[in-house]
Amino acid sequence: MLRLHLILRSIAIGAGLLFAAASAHAGGSLAPPPPERPAILWSGVYVGVHAGYAWSDMDWGLDYPFATPIVSSRNFDNSGALYGGQVILQHQSGSWVYGIDVSLSGGFDEDTRRGVRLFGNSFAGTLSTDIELLLLATGRLGYAWDRRMVYVKAGYAGARIKLTTDDNVPPDFVSQARDFHNGWTVGGGFEHMLTDKVVFGIEYNYINLNDNVTAPIANVNTGALVTNIPARSDVDTTIHSIMARLSVKLNR
User: Do residue 20 and residue 59 come from a single domain?
Assistant: First the structure.
């Protein structure tokens, strides 16, 4: 009887261990899988900086009242390093990403043309142009796959342009206009998400501006304005820019 009791007890203990092992295995298979890595989301608010190069072509037609004949047209090339900052607000729907992009840039070089006829028969005059600020406010539409996105953009472009004349003939008359010239832009680029919050990209923009400008003429020696005979200009500007951009996502 004692041997039978020991055998039955051993069988019971073994069955209990097998049941416990089976229950643990079954329970493990029903446990939720480990959380998956979240999908890459491009939606959010971004701020950043950019740097690159820009080149322009500016046709300046000038009606200078002391000139005979009128200075018909001069061509300028304001090129140089371009740098500034941007703010981006965008939303993702599937693979499509759309939003707005606002950037402010500076850094163009001043360009000067000498030997211009501005007074009588003298060709001592100078004309100078300087693109001081460039503002772009555009809509953008992109297509994203994982951490990469290509996009196009279009919208408003404006630039603060300084135009300066000096006839360099006594009593030396000068004029200066510093105005915002308005127009439009189209462009596009490629972006790569380095981390969940940091994005690096390359972007190209074409900008077209056209404005009429009127500037008073002043006597350099006395500072007195020459009344009723301002310098009138028609300025047609095209700009190309290519830049690297680094943006940081502010929200999750």
Answer: no
**Which domain, by its residues, includes 26?**
1-30
- What was the pLDDT predicted at 70? 65
Rounded to an integer, what distance in angstroms lies between the CA atom of residue 152 and that of residue 142? 6
pLDDT of residue 217: 92
Asked whether residue 118 is assigned to any structural domain, the reply reads yes
Strands 173-193 and 198-219: antiparallel
Q: What is the pTM of this model?
A: 0.81
**In order along the chain (252 residues), what is the average pLDDT of each group of 10 residues?**
46 48 49 56 96 96 77 86 97 96 95 88 91 97 96 98 93 93 98 96 98 92 84 95 97 78
Residue 132 forms part of a structural domain:
yes
The Cα 221–Cα 167 span in angstroms is 13
